[in-house]
Amino acid sequence: MDLNQIYTELIREHNKNPINKVEMPDATISEEGHNPSCGDEIILHLKVKEDTIVDASFSGVGCAISQASTSMMIDLIRGKEIYEAERIVDIFLKMIRKEIDNEEELEILGDAIFLKNISNMPARVKCGVLSWHTLKIALEKVK
């Protein structure tokens, strides 16, 4: 299977089975993210205890890329300390901006590494990074 097939399958799978897409009424913070150019709207829910993201989920609507990217991000940050989540966000955004391509450094992104290809599709970049920017804002507010 080539990278494009893996990318397509991951997007399809996360969009079809959004296990991380649930309301979290007892969240420490719920941060809204909106992409006016395509209508993606997410609410990222984080439950933080002693500088650790003990749980995370999201709600809202959007295209397959925004939903899948959000779900993959949540898989990566759940159980991580805030500083670790910030590092993951930083590496992801640098990957999308093509500022890093060191495979060892990118391994921290797990499946989200396959979203690297959206950097070649300018119209889809905002969809893929919406939740990551929303997470960055939420973490700043929680600290």
Automatic annotation (TrEMBL):
TM spans (from-to):
none
Any one Gene Ontology BP term: iron-sulfur cluster assembly
Q: Per the database record, which ranges form the NIF system FeS cluster assembly NifU N-terminal domain?
A: 7-127
What's one GO MF term for it?
iron ion binding
Q: Which InterPro entries match?
A: NIF_FeS_clus_asmbl_NifU_N (IPR002871)
Q: Which Pfam families match?
A: NifU_N
Q: Which family does it belong to?
A: Belongs to the NifU family.
Listed name of the protein: SUF system NifU family Fe-S cluster assembly protein
Q: What is the scientific name of the source organism? A: Anaerosalibacter bizertensis
